[in-house]
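Open question from group meeting: does this chain pack into something compact, or does most of it stay loose? Before anyone orders reagents, we agreed to write out a predicted structure and look at it together. Recording both the input and the output here so the notebook holds the full record.
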Amino acid sequence: MISLTAKIRKTIGKKIKALLKEGVLPAVLYGPGMKTVSLEVDLKDFEKTFKEAGRSSLISLETEGKKEKNLTLIQSVQRHPLTGKPIHVDFYQPNLKEKIEARVPIILDGEAPAVKDLGGTLVKTISEVNVKALPQNLPKEIRISVEGLKTFEDNIFIKDLKTGEGIEILKKPEEIVAMVTPPEKVEEELAKPIEEKVEDVEKVGEKKEEGEKVEKEEEEKKPSSAKVQESKEEKSKEEKAK
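Structure tokens returned:
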């Protein structure tokens, strides 16, 4: 089992910022039937532990000065809005005899033949699922191969996910986890806006041609006497202008 060493934390309030500058992460430990305990852990050690355990694997939290080890879950991690570094962590000590819920990530393994041979695109529609199990049985992740996706009609469903005994996935079995979409769909989506713009340009051009045609027809329909009169009026205007 993964273990992490902690110390009882006496620093509180604004002084906590000083801990973070020293590479120390403030934390709390709580759970059913126990009082909340303020702790501190080494930031680098925590990041390594979190990477290995995730949010659904039990870790042995060993507090200096105490013989008892706490089997805990990493309940939540607060991060700095700019750097993304952890600034606070909550450890939760569950009742090992009662089932609890946890979010578990889904990992896709391998390469889908429909991607490799047919040029499709792998689409992951569900990234994680809620599961229910005893704390000690919670998986860190659920892995499944995509090698069964040989055509664009093949899908991976929730019911295809394999978990250990006593683990319940809290999602409908028929929900799709992953699929492969054909390349032409992507091409169609990319080409669609361009086609629409071309059509708009063509329509504008057609309207312009129609307008010019109407003006020409109206000009041709005018009687000869009207044309002569217009010519005289234009000539008169030119003489006055001189």
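Observations to bring back to the group:
The helical segments are 16-21, 43-53, 113-116, 183-221, 224-241.
The chain has three domains: 3-92, 100-181, 186-241.
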